[in-house]
UniProtKB/TrEMBL annotation:
Pfam families for this protein: HD, HD_assoc
Protein name: Deoxyguanosinetriphosphate triphosphohydrolase-like protein
NCBIfam families cross-referenced by the UniProt entry: dGTP_triPase, PRK01286.1-1, PRK01286.1-3
Residues annotated as domain HD: 67-211
Organism: Methylocystis echinoides
Length: 395
């Protein structure tokens, strides 16, 4: 496919960004979306992703994915899709790199535990937490809290998976987190509309990346075999036949890699072709036209959507619900379920800056501070806090 050298009319244009909450002088060397990406990369929250679980607790092996390696992979795929669709690569990468900033320690197990703890006070949502990180919790700059990202980056972080509300304001899939609604009142993000093509590219890149690397991690951890995934996913069976024909007798470890690279490549190529066809058919002449469309512009074909569903079903059963993973998740849920009430009841158990934030607040206010503190923890730090508060047996 020939790549266009200039941005398409439907791309988000950094030179015409809706701006930031806090005005900054233009950079002579970087676009506004490049600055967004760089601010995310240099943030404390981004560095902490190196020690946050994707599926496995990193202590179980040094070669399994973390939130950081996942985010880097998502960024690479998002850039590839954005480049092929002639939209802004830097914005797509920025949204991709920021999409997991709100995740708790211990992956989905940690999020489930924190959601349960926060249920009396509105629950916990990792997308809303990512917005809190980039608008409030990062405390680096002299003039403001947060990273002061552009409107387009914030829109992408909040809406990369699609509109949050219907045209009448009713929630589409689940109630909208309180902080998103509060921020939207201050800085309207168009919650009933799609995000731009760049954010949509980041969202699909997320799905592609985690399917690819979870296949890789699951195979290398011995949670399932090549034979079982081939039986559960005809798409994979076809790729394995292709590998066997081209590389007969290839050692098993290399087969794993050849499979994963083909999975990612086929999904990316399909996403580009399908999305380009949709854009050609709809022919949006601005980013606003993309936002107002009735469906996403970045998508997979029906055939690859079916393959994606097969793989997700297989991974859910054979990886995410594997007894080895569930055992780790149970310990992770227990850790957060013990830390939260301890900090809520005695805020002084948290570091001084966090205890000060919680001081004088009612139970709801303290709960939000405690959730912010726990959500920012790495896996290792959370386990260390459990041992500090409850003794070696508590960890």
């Amino acid at each position: 496919m020939a790549f266009r050298q200039t941005l398409a009319p439907y791309a988000c244009d950094a030179a015409r960004s809706r701006g930031r909450l806090f005005a900054v002088s233009p950079s002579p060397t970087r676009s506004e979306f490049q600055r967004d990406r760089d601010r995310i990369i240099h943030s404390t929250a981004f560095r902490r992703l190196a020690h946050k679980t994707q599926v496995f607790v990193p202590l179980d092996g040094d070669h399994f994915r973390t939130r950081l390696t996942h985010s880097i992979e998502v960024g690479q795929i998002a850039r590839a899709i954005a480049r092929a669709l002639a939209v802004d690569e830097d914005l797509a990468e920025a949204v991709a790199l920021a999409h997991d900033l709100g995740h708790t320690p211990f992956g989905h197990a940690g999020e489930e535990a924190l959601e349960t703890c926060m249920k009396p006070w509105g629950g916990f949502d990792h997308n809303a937490q990512a917005l809190r990180v980039v608008t409030l919790l990062e405390r680096r700059y002299a003039d403001y809290d947060g990273l002061d990202l552009t409107w387009e980056a914030l829109e992408g972080i909040v809406k990369h998976n699609g509109p949050l509300v219907a045209g009448d304001g009713a929630p589409r899939l689940r109630p909208v987190a309180r902080y998103i609604l509060e921020f939207d009142a201050l800085c309207p993000l168009g919650l009933a509309r799609f995000a731009g093509v760049e954010a949509q590219a980041a969202a699909l890149a997320d799905d592609i990346a985690y399917i690819g690397h979870d296949i890789d991690d699951g195979l290398r951890a011995g949670l399932f075999s090549l034979e079982s995934i081939a039986a559960g996913a005809p798409f994979v069976a076809g790729l394995l036949e292709e590998i066997g024909a081209k590389h007969p007798g290839l050692e098993r470890g290399r087969v794993f890699h050849e499979l994963v690279r083909r999975v990612i490549t086929r999904f990316v190529e399909d996403a580009i072709a399908t999305s380009a066809a949709r854009l050609d058919r709809f022919a949006p002449q601005s980013a606003e036209a993309v936002r107002g469309a009735e469906r996403a512009m970045v998508a997979l074909s029906d055939e690859m959507t079916a393959a994606e569903h097969d793989l997700k079903r297989f991974l859910f059963t054979h990886m995410y619900r594997h007894e080895k993973v569930m055992g780790v998740w149970a310990r992770a849920r227990d850790a957060i379920s013990r830390l939260f009430p301890a900090f809520l009841e005695t805020p002084g158990l948290m570091p001084p800056e966090w205890a000060t934030l919680a001081a004088g607040r009612d139970a709801a206010g303290r709960a939000v501070v405690v959730a912010d503190y726990i959500a920012g923890m790495t896996d290792r730090y959370a386990l260390t806090e459990v041992k500090r508060l409850f003794g070696p047996a508590g960890g």
